[in-house]
Design goal:
single chain; alpha/beta; TIM Barrel; 8-stranded parallel beta sheet; 3-stranded antiparallel beta sheet; globular; metal-binding
Length: 351
């Protein structure tokens, strides 16, 4: 049985001068202390203490071996998204980050799957960056669940998702920049309460806006952190869709009929919660996610899956790796489509 972790972060060794490619002041960079520890930085501000598994591929593979993880999909740390920056600078930054992620994963190409990031504040530019990254070898794209006040059902972002479907690039959506910050001071409440709320909001937005009707069914889309609170509240959304025309105004189907359009990871940390998640999503739509290497992640990868009541051996195998193998499997036309899109873009800029 192959064990694949779809939710694992990286912050390549990028110094402060490199961070200024994105923005002057508040630039993201990594301060490495030389003793196996470091600090994620935002300009002069210390953001989060970290350990070398975040930037050292050898340490990461050693941790994977110790935890029984065969493969990780490697995505940038959300601090690196750069969505508030000027788009052209953000595109240059994403190209730099994406190159470093490719180099990081090249250290163990059979164990580490690189995911790119894009300047989602400019969806057309994001399509260009994603296309280049796919042609260069990235196996997916990692995005935040919103850009400022624009959710994933924003027309431009919907077009970006459709573009990813056309070039066969899987999408991993991660909550970030959580809502209600003024009311969630202390105790890591943005992570404990804001992340589930952000993720549920993103999924419901795609369902109720009719966005899923406009996105090709071939899109492979996964939401981190177990889809947030969606599994517990989906019945509430269905009830509202059936009873109020304002809820169903833009969506021809109730929310529960769209659960076959996306995946979620297993990062819910309670076998009982995971059982509900599997019942709502099916065993074909949940994949192992640990949030490595951060402290709120699953320290024993797959323990919640193995302890989940009601899952048989076949279901456990799907959650531990089988579904991820299908999610990240290259499609026959993915690389040619990405390369053709690059050629078209180059030709257009030259003419």
């Amino acid at each position: 049985m192959t064990v694949i972790d779809v939710h694992a972060h990286v912050f390549p060794r990028l110094g402060r001068a490199e961070g200024r490619v994105l923005i002057d002041g508040g630039e993201p960079w990594l301060r490495v202390h030389g003793d196996g520890t470091g600090m994620m930085m935002s300009g002069d501000q210390e953001y989060r203490p970290v350990e070398e598994g975040l930037w050292d591929p050898a340490r990461r593979v050693a941790d994977m071996d110790a935890a029984g993880v065969d493969v990780q999909a490697v995505s940038s740390t959300p601090l690196m998204f750069g969505y508030a920056a000027e788009p052209s600078r953000a595109a240059d930054w994403c190209d730099l980050v994406n190159d470093r992620i490719l180099a990081f994963c090249a250290d163990a190409p059979d164990r580490l799957l690189p995911l790119c990031q894009v300047p989602l504040q400019d969806p057309a530019l994001a399509c260009e960056v994603a296309t280049r990254a796919a042609a260069a070898g990235h196996r997916g794209v990692h995005i935040g669940n919103h850009v400022g006040d624009r959710n994933l059902d924003d027309p431009g972002i919907v077009e970006f998702l459709a573009h990813c479907a056309r070039i066969g690039l899987p999408v991993l959506a991660h909550p970030w920049d959580m809502l209600g910050a003024d009311r969630m001071r202390g105790h890591m409440l943005p992570w404990l309460s804001g992340m589930p709320a952000e993720t549920q909001l993103s999924i419901l937005g795609l369902m109720l806006s009719g966005a899923f009707e406009r996105i090709p069914t071939s899109l492979r889309l996964c939401f981190c952190h177990g889809g947030g609170s969606l599994a517990f509240t989906l019945g509430r959304a269905d009830n509202a869709w059936h009873r109020r025309d304002i809820v169903r105004a833009d969506s021809p189907r109730p929310p529960s009929e769209y659960t076959d359009r996306f995946y979620v990871d297993s990062a819910v940390f309670d076998p009982r919660a995971l059982r509900l998640l599997v019942e709502v999503m099916s065993a074909d739509r949940v994949m192992l996610g640990t949030d490595y290497p951060f402290p709120l992640g699953e320290k024993d990868p797959g323990a919640t899956i193995r302890a989940c009541p009601g899952l048989d051996d076949t279901g456990r195998a799907k959650l531990l790796g089988g579904n991820a193998e299908e999610f990240f499997a290259p499609t026959a036309d993915a690389v040619p489509a990405a390369e053709a899109a690059v050629d078209t873009a180059v030709a257009g800029s030259a003419s």
